[in-house]
Amino acid sequence: MSSKVLVSLSSEVQEFQLMQGEDARETGARLGLDVEVVFAESHAVVQIQQLFKAVHAPEGERPVAIIVEPCVGEAFERVARNAVRAGMGWFLVNLRAAYIDELRSAHPEAAVSMVGADQVEVGRIQGRQCRALLPDGGRVLGVQGPADSSATHERAEGFAETLGEGFEVRFLHGDWTAAGGDRAVMSWLRLKTAEAFQPDIVVAQNDHMAAGARRAFTTNRPDWAEIPYLGADGLSRGGQQAVNDKAFAATVILPSSTGPALELVAAWLESGTPPERQLILKPRSYPAEADLQPWDGS
Predict the structure, then answer these.
(1) Residue 5 and residue 74: Cα distance in Å, rounded?
(2) Where are the domains of the chain?
């Protein structure tokens, strides 16, 4: 059987995506898999074309499995069905999709699975970080991901569940990029209602948007800039470095999903047994939650 695996990621501009690509290559080499990593320029049409090219390749050139993190909320159901009918495994990372259960039921012999961090727990961690930094409550400006992303909704769910009383929250939508976080805050600052809501903390659903939001405040409302910022992804040279440099108060470290997905592919190829429906990976706070102290501006 072929050992070729296609790993389709959204963008080679985002550090988290680059990290997942590198993890895929390293894990594939360790497991003896022929891993090809492609990026979709954050464009759904480009990603769909890449995926269909693999699915409809000549039989001897097709990958045995596809690992994909869609660059939009749509989870590429049509591509997935075509891939499974062609005998390929389909592994969706960092996104949930209802059609996965339907595919598994219709093709019980197929390798169809979802792999990703516990997104609700990411939100819970940010809620606990927020309470640790502002134990007396306050005003929260939240910068969320795209409205069509399951990660956006699950992180928001966990955050609301854990934050509790004593906080007034306003939410903006970004697009997971620093530029998107900047634009979201800039658009909000132009509203008359913004003047009456000076935030005590900014909680962004990833580090890029946290950095963009901080840049917007620093440039346009420097009197509001010296507040704590929370992010997520937590790369060593990204969110963790921002915490160490005191640009962020905290972040959430998310594990790469591509390496664990490739482990599932290797186990399936060896045993012939399809993987479980999903593999949930555990995120963690940086700094550790026990080390967070009430924010004093330093």
Answers:
(1) 22
(2) 4-117+255-281, 119-253+287-291
Q: Where are the alpha helices (DSSP H) in the chain?
A: 15-31, 44-55, 77-85, 99-106, 119-133, 150-163, 178-189, 207-220, 239-244, 258-271
- pTM (whole model) above 0.85: yes
Angle between helices 258-271 and 15-31 (to 10 degrees): 30
Which of these, 88, 96, 92, 38, lies nearest to 65 by C-alpha position? 88
Contact 74, 96 (CB under 8 A): no
In this structure, CATH architecture of domain 119-253+287-291: 3-Layer(aba) Sandwich (3.40)
pLDDT digits (tens, 9 = 90+) for 194-250: 989 999 999 999 999 999 999 999 999 998 888 999 999 999 999 999 999 999 999
Return the structure tokens found at 62. Answer: 């097709």
Integer-rounded Cα Rg, in Å, for the chain is 20
Question: Residues 220, 187: contact at Cβ < 8 Å?
Answer: no
- The CA-CA-CA angle for residues 112, 263, 59, to 5°, reads 55
Q: Which CATH superfamily is domain 4-117+255-281 in?
A: Response regulator (3.40.50.2300)
Across the range 80-86, mean pLDDT stands at 95
What pLDDT is stored for residue 144 in this prediction?
97
The sign of the torsion formed by the CA atoms of 229, 231, 235, 238 equals negative
Same fold, 4-117+255-281 and 119-253+287-291: yes
